[in-house]
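Final report, Chapter 2: Outcomes

The project's central promise was a pipeline that accepts a single protein chain and returns its three-dimensional structure in a standardized token representation, suitable for archiving and comparison. That pipeline is now operational. To close this chapter, we reproduce one record exactly as it appears in the project archive, with the input sequence first and the structure output second.
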Amino acid sequence: MLGLLLGLLAPAQAEIYRYVDPNGRVHFTNVPIGPGWELYFPAPKRSRRIRGYYRPRIYSSSHWDRLFEEVARQEGLSPALLKAIARVESAFDPQAVSPKGALGLMQLMPETARIVGVRDPFDPQENVKGAARFLKYLLQEFGSLEEALAAYHAGPEVVKRYGGLPPYPETRRYVRSVLKYFRAYQP
């Protein structure tokens, strides 16, 4: 009886479903309402509950070193740069989901993941490979590391609109933070 009661009190980890209506509007829910709803992303793995709050899982950066090195070599990027982005984006949590909907280790937005060929954004290898392809494109597009990082964070259109780093404090902090970790992770 106690086990059943504790099971009922455990917090739910909902899956998210998506439906595109005939007018092209996208709807999301945690309960599929009828036909046409598709699983958008599975429920994230549980984090430990501490004093009423969920603490994200803590991952060591060295846990992913081999993956960053392999993908960086394939894409002609610095492993330290990929590692710095993952540190700032998700604190190396492959199950991370941001309040804005970015997914996985490198926090790819679903549309970006689709464009770069990532089918499972929670698969660390797929996520890092897709993010590296996107970052490489941004570096070629903007020719500046700071602008490419700003585009990674705020979107390429925003950087183009402002002709460089946008005046958003959050994006400017993001760029500074990635560059700080980038320098720290370089050999």
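Archive annotation: The radius of gyration is 18 Å.
This record, like all others produced under the grant, will remain available to the consortium after the project formally closes.
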